[in-house]
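Limitations

Structures in this collection are predictions, not experimental determinations, and the ligand pose is part of the prediction. Treat each record accordingly. The example that follows, with 6-O-phosphono-alpha-D-glucopyranose as the small molecule, is included so readers can see exactly what is and is not provided: the inputs are given verbatim, and the output is the predicted complex.
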Amino acid sequence: MYLDIGNVLNTSPGITEQTLDRLDDRVAIAHDRIEEGREAEEHGYAALNLPQTVDTDEIRSALEPFGTPEAVLTVGIGGSALGAATISDALADQTDVEAHFLDNVDPEDTAALLDSLPLDETVLNVVSRSGTTAETLANFLVVREAMEDAGVDWTEQTFVTTGDEGNLRNLADKHDLPSLRVPDGVPGRFSALSTVGLACGALQGIDIEGVVEGARSEMDKLSGSLEDSPGYAYGAVAYALAERGALTNAMMPYAESLEYFAEWFAQLWAESLGKEGLGQTPARALGATDQHSQLQLYRAGPRDKLVTLVRPREREDIDIPETDLEGLSYLGGAGLGDLLDAEFEATEASLAAEDRPNIRIEVDAVDAHGIGELMYAMEAATVMYGELAGVSTFTQPAVEWGKKAARGLLGGGEFEEADAVADKREFTIE
Ligand SMILES: O=P(O)(O)OC[C@H]1O[C@H](O)[C@H](O)[C@@H](O)[C@@H]1O
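Predicted complex:
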């Protein structure tokens, strides 16, 4: 992965070369702490070891009973869905097996999806680290019933990834379902490179080994200097910019196949770093589409943003046909990819011309290696940012508060968080 931070130097907000030197000293200290955590397999830090601890053979053999299905339906939410979705989306060109994700509990959307799926040829991939998440278990029950109604033996077509305990583990044991464990010490949003994020791709026949290799090549770059580690450098610079007022980070890939990547990144960044009044709000954008909408704000709105532009250096191109239509002849002879690249560089320059900080991230291609590199580097960036900010990167008390309140409201136990719902202030206007 290549990182270019030239456009954060002396921008507004921005950092100077002297700041970078000072930051580098702090990166060295943070790196030592991270290494300590990795060595002891501490909660969270253990996730940065996944490229060397994940066993892709184990994943493939656990999935053997399913052969090659027509479709995979992953039921999970947050970290139990977004990593798999990012990998499947990026590598969709490697497979004919469709991947669908049921994370939300919108009844209309769920009904439409279930109507459209060949249920007898679909593997149901249920994923929950805790094994207790209401949305995931509710969706599982709905899909299971739909399979039963369609005369499909769901026990023959269901695969489970979960922890050693919890409702989902009990269910897998009861029905003797093929299953995998979520590795210890790996929080949901850092689990993309584990059983959690790779099983779906394996069912699709995607090159998950290549994803892990790509991640490993970024893992091997972790060092005590941001100059040697793109992941650490991204995290450290984003942190320094946030300290100087860049409180939003617009993640803007210029590739449709990386749209989910921006969504996955948003969970990683927000849930890990949004603590104690600190953090940087991830915004999702897609180039070139959002160049024609959000760029106005990024270039001329408040100076409170970092824009992160992501692209592959190579992609398959489609030629734009030659034309003698007046004013359009400049397009002929170029490719759609050339146009997308020109748009990318134009956005970068338009921000730089106004001294707006932006960072360029590139991979050679959106392939297995490239997506592995990107995902690992962003995880390392998040951990580095968290160390520098002094927050507890691997917890999510605010999200858990909401989970308990929702469960309490549905009668799933006594939770004081649910009582707080009754205190809602109202000021209704019709
Ligand atoms: O994997 P699960 O236990 O079902 O959790 C799914 C998601 O639930 C919560 O919202 C957590 O805050 C997320 O980090 C997690 O990814």
